[in-house]
UniProtKB/TrEMBL annotation, chains A, B:
<keyword id="KW-0479">Metal-binding</keyword>
<dbReference type="InterPro" id="IPR042086">
    <property type="entry name" value="MeTrfase_capping"/>
</dbReference>
<dbReference type="GO" id="GO:0008168">
    <property type="term" value="F:methyltransferase activity"/>
</dbReference>
<dbReference type="Pfam" id="PF03492">
    <property type="entry name" value="Methyltransf_7"/>
</dbReference>
<keyword id="KW-0460">Magnesium</keyword>
<dbReference type="GO" id="GO:0046872">
    <property type="term" value="F:metal ion binding"/>
</dbReference>
<dbReference type="InterPro" id="IPR029063">
    <property type="entry name" value="SAM-dependent_MTases_sf"/>
</dbReference>
<protein>
    <recommendedName>
        <fullName>S-adenosylmethionine-dependent methyltransferase At5g38100</fullName>
    </recommendedName>
</protein>
<dbReference type="InterPro" id="IPR005299">
    <property type="entry name" value="MeTrfase_7"/>
</dbReference>
């Protein structure tokens, strides 16, 4: 089987009907739930005296996409730090904030920059590149935030044989194991890079889709999406519109870890302490409107990968997502029984 | 007369036939000439022990456009610092470099990021915004470089009445004075912002088109370009294709200062010492090929402003630059008699 290396996952750019900017309300709800935890994390765990010692305070959002969720996240972090600073009655002046918005090279930074709030309280920069690699100089970051991004693998595990499916949900266990192995390698690189970049005492706030221990993948919302999208692709194979081998060699580079796996990976890396960890459950959308939201959400996230692999034929892409919408209707009862969880982790950089 | 505020000057984006990326060889020759001066400046004036004291070395290129000249400039700066570090036999390890590529919000950062050299020796970030405003936290930059950018005014001076022309060349002296006043205000804001951002002992390397004392504007190459472009626009007025009032209210926000003016502005600001200053003369292109190069160069730089003001009609823009090319042919002898100079200034941030 042909090896498939996904070079980069980028959400749809621009501000059009299919853009991520206009179809990221699900991620927004993920963020809204993380927001109060981030606020608490900063109030309780940020050593503001040590970190704001006469220099600017440097924040990065890793996997920020093209907005607007990233701006809400950053704004709320800055607000919490200001509140913490105020509550401690420090004599030090409030630091200036430098915020680095990071995402893949193929992210639409032009849209990101043009959506930057005009009245922001920070200096902004964009940083193109994979967060599985080094992005910043040593000891230059005070707070890392990454929301709804770490579930994206750097690539599909190379030796996956996954006939007629595009994900490990409903796949043989060796497919699942290969994904698990890739996630583990990716997180190792992620933690190694951040361990160099984050100052001692610096915080890292991570939140991404997870699976609860024992939860079957057949009832994990995103797994259901990918099963239905794979099924829609197979329908197109039957209609002679898509090549079967193309489907066999396509896999979504998405992995939902369990909190236990995340904990083990942090411990193996050894440079961070877990200050807080919890899972959050998200309500599944109900009613007819849900189908359109889910369909557009999946298109904003997956269209780039699909075009890279299957070609840039608009008609094929439109038809695929029409079929996908029909599948969502047909299997709506399964969606309603599924669940969607996020793991929230607060890490602190240890003294070496 | 209607006031015209030019919101932002951005070179043409992308990598197409009319792009700045493919039509910036004139700026490249400007940079090539500055290159050896930059190298000397770093070797002679950079206090490497003070600036590389266990932290990363932060460089910004202000007005970088979409490449490729900016990468050559930055590469050569990094190389010079490495050489300086080596030549002093310092025990400190070579610092990591963090490079901030800055340009207007309307700059094509997607093209810039996708053109970043893969084998670079620095961490890269993009910073959108006008360099006439603050872009970075206090004392966060070690070396500022700005090549072929400071000639662009933040806006056309507001009360300019400049019938049938698009620039101060060949215009009444009050037009010229208004431009001079705007340049002076802009540079004041530029130096004030940089004075906050650059660390004590940090360097600032500036190079931009200038006029030699006593040189008539009628023989300043860029002034000749704008006279001919204005004349081409007036031809289109006569042909009924462009509205006269539109031409009257359009002015290129470009100013070529004299070295004496620059010196006075640095002194008035008071936060920098002039470590070196010289003017460099550029050979005027000869032969038929020159016309095409000049025409494309002007289009890559001016098309954005023209479209903002006159509308986005491709036919009008194409016809304008065809007429402009004809004018370049017709007045080629004037171009051959003209001259093009750049001022190179090396500044050092004083201790307050």
């Amino acid at each position: 089987m042909k090896k498939v290396v996904i070079e980069s996952v980028a959400m749809n750019g621009g501000v059009g009907d299919h853009s991520y900017a206009n179809n990221s309300s699900l991620q927004r709800s993920g963020f809204e739930a993380a927001k109060s935890l981030i606020h608490e994390a900063i109030m309780e765990k940020l050593d503001i005296k040590h970190l704001c010692n006469g220099k600017s305070f440097r924040i990065t959002d890793l996997g920020c996409s093209a907005g607007p969720n990233t701006f809400i996240a950053v704004e709320s972090i800055v607000e919490a730090i200001e509140q913490k600073h105020h509550s401690e009655g420090l004599k030090l002046p409030l630091p200036e904030f430098h915020v680095y918005f990071n995402d893949q090279l193929s992210n639409d930074f032009n849209t990101l920059f043009n959506s930057l709030p005009l009245e922001r309280r920070y200096f902004a920069a964009g940083v193109p590149g994979s967060f599985h690699t080094r992005l910043f100089p040593e000891k230059s970051i005070d707070l890392v935030c990454s929301l709804s991004a770490l579930q994206w693998l750097s690539k599909v595990p190379e030796d996956v044989v996954n006939m007629g499916r595009i994900h490990y949900s409903n796949a043989p266990s060796e497919v699942m194991e290969a994904y698990k192995g890739q996630f583990s390698k990716d997180m190792e690189r992620f933690f190694d890079a951040r361990a160099k970049e984050v100052v001692h005492g610096g915080l890292m706030v991570l939140s991404f889709p997870c699976i609860r221990d024992g939860q079957p993948y057949s009832r994990f919302l995103v797994g259901v999406f990918f099963s239905l999208l794979g099924s829609a692709l197979m329908d197109m194979v039957k209609m002679g519109k898509v090549d079967q081998t193309k489907v066999d060699s396509f896999n979504m580079p998405f992995y939902a870890a369990s909190p236990k796996e995340v904990e083990a990976l942090v411990e193996r890396n050894g440079h961070f302490t877990i200050e807080r960890m919890e899972t959050q459950n998200f309500p599944i959308l109900q009613g007819e409107g849900a189908i359109q939201v889910y369909s557009k959400h999946n298109r904003a996230c997956a269209e780039g990968l699909i075009r890279q692999h299957f070609g840039h034929d608009d008609e094929i892409v439109d038809e695929l997502f029409d079929l996908f919408s029909n599948k969502l209707s047909e299997y709506f009862s399964i969606l309603e029984e599924s669940s969607m969880n996020f793991v929230f982790v607060l890490l602190k950089r240890k003294q070496d």
